[in-house]
Each structure stands twice: as structure tokens, then as C-alpha cells.
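S2.1 Query sequence (Biosynthetic peptidoglycan transglycosylase)
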Amino acid sequence: MRLLLSRPGRYVLIIAGAILLAPAVLILLMRWVNPPISAYMLRTHWQTGADGPAIHHRWTPLDDIAPCMPLAAVASEDQTFPDHHGFVWSAITDAIADNARGGSVRGASTISQQTAKNLFLWPAKSYVRKAIEAYLTGWLEVLWPKRRILEVYLNIAQFDDHVFGVGSAAQRLFGTTAAGLSPDQCAALAAVLPAPTRYSATAPGPHVRGRKTWIAGQMRQLGRGYLDDVLTR
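Output C-alpha cells follow.
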């Protein structure tokens, strides 16, 4: 039996389908077109107002970023990045169990999820936002190669107050280019990624120094060739 819909019902389905597919169209376009701004940059600008500090952001192609930076980010944030399809289900299951016991929403985000969040969403911890993030992450993984995900992530991640992207972070924090970053500087930048407005890569406290040492050790353990398959695709 064929299900017949009224004209308003068909319009609702068309509109709903357009809303669901619109992010996919935008994400597909961004496979080749570099996003000029992210949701997190806009939020930072709105919070400080027109008279506040300027947003510092400079797009840097992945080939112009020191190889230690992608490795440091992966070592710090998502060591399964080359192999997963956007999600690490064991980590998600553990997070759900912890959240159920503690009442707070703990993340289990991959670099793919963080890219979707930073590019399109807001930082509130809620299951609604996580659901939207998961939907966008699925499209990122389908429409972008891993290399592109990592390139966009490194270009929109926040590394200091009003400083977004590795290109601006290298210049403003270390007085060098993204290509000129040393392994120690890459580890320092990766160490502040969880809370870049609270921690400093150039004046690290005990917590950041400890994270930087751990990240540097993980980078050595993973090895220089760990991301070769990702970076050559």
C-alpha cells in the first residue's frame, strides 16, 4: 500500500531533507575551499565585541606545516586517527558509562569530531550538541580524506586567546613560521589544545609542562612515519 502525503506533508519532508543535506553540501565544498572562519572564531569575536582584541588566524597548507605538528596533535588528542572512521566506540561507551555515574557529560572526541565541533558548533556540553556533532562528523569522514580533516583541524584549532590555527600560533607565540616549528614547540602547542585560553604554550605551568613531556614521549614512540599514509592521501 502506497503512503500518500498531503501537499503540506510533502513540503515538510522536502524542507527537512534540505536541512539535513545542507551541511553535506557545505562540507563537500570545503573539501577544496578553505573555510575563512569557524564557529569558535565567531563566538570568540562576539564575546569580546567589536572593540575587543582581533582574531588572529592565518590559513597554512598542510605541506607548509612542520611534520612534527600533525604528529603532536595526533599523539595528544587522537592516536587512533589514521584507523578510525570518525568515532572510537570503546571510548564513547566508557564516556557514557562515566557520565551516567557522575551526572556530567564527558567527551570522547576524535580529531574528526573536534573538527566538526570547532568548525560548525558551540562548546556547550550536551547530548543534543554531541548528536549534531556526530552527524557532521559522519559527513566529514565520508566526504573528506583524513589529510583534509587534519589540515582543517590544525588551521582552526585555538592555541591561545584569540589565536587560531598553527600559522598564527607559530608567528605570534614563537616568532617563527608553521614550517619552522621545532618538535618541542609542536608538543607545547598540542599540550594546550584542551584549554587554550587557560593554558599557555610559551609560559607553561606544571600541568602543561607535564603534558608536553608526555606528548613528546608519545611522538617518539609513534615515530616519524606514523602519519605517512594519512599525509600522502
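The radius of gyration is 19 Å. The domain at 55-232 is CATH 1.10.3810.10 (Penicillin binding protein transpeptidase fold).
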